[in-house]
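ARCHIVE CARD
Drawer: 12
Card no.: 0347
Subject: one protein chain, sequence and derived structure
Cross-reference: see card 0346
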Amino acid sequence: MRDALAQAQAYSDEQQGFGLIVLKDGAVIHRGFDPGVTGATKTVSASMMKSVVAVLIGIAIDRGFIGSVDDPAEFYLPEWRGQPRGKVTVRQLLTMSSGLEPVGFADLLFAPDANKVALDATLTGQPDARFYYSNSTSQVLGAILDRQVKQQGYDGFAEFLHRDLWCPLGNGEALLWTDETGMPRAYAGLHAGLEDWARIGELIRNSGRVGDQQIVSSDWIAAMTQASPSNSQFGFHIWRAGDWTANRAYNPDNPIGIPHREPFAADDVVFFDGFGGQRVYIIPSEGLTIARVGSVNLEYDDAIVPNLLIRAVE
């Protein structure tokens, strides 16, 4: 394991990483940071926020704020009622198989009202017919969450995240990227320390539990990490070990492929994916949680760090 950790750190460093934390059975067995960086240093996490949204959806269902993943979106989005897109389910949004038209990257990125832009999307495909990873889909889920928790007395999405997930985990100060209305961008922009991300990974590994507190139900974690019908590499807004491809694709129109030189060495790997090599890998069968951040680097290979450590455990 000592050799594997050294190799994992060396690879992360080579690929412009500046932070790596590894836990085995809940104990930190490795920390490696660039000078001036600590486990509490807030870094840009990009789309790792999407997996946090999935956990929050599970908490909202546990609390009864959202009825079911099989509820049609029109239950929660009045502007979609009576329209074909209103029949899209929460499950189809979570699995990125809604059939909604893609919203332009820049259109959403610079939108003063991210919810409005995302909710203006029309249905152009058959739900469940294909996987199409998109930021606007995550923003629709964020809008649903924001509206439903406000009905329960929360100020909105941010307070729900703070009270029901972030603080119970014992996490430190974090920042949310918001639009001009004050709505968090649910597809990216949760700036937090690597130790915080590791704790969220541990929540997944421990089936939604922290100590004696069940933050989100174990049934939700099981459902969240199962393969979706349209993409075996994706669950509910979380990536996973599925049918191996040498370059993992985000969607058919995106030319970027994520290098993956070999299949994962364990079938139960699930992970948060932030653009350019921001990752939290969770491997329950091996008791491993691995959190890694770095400069954006499209050459970062997803298989190397987790496989080194999986094989060392075995």
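Annotation on reverse: Residues 12 and 34 are 11 Å apart (CA to CA). The longest helix spans residues 48-63.
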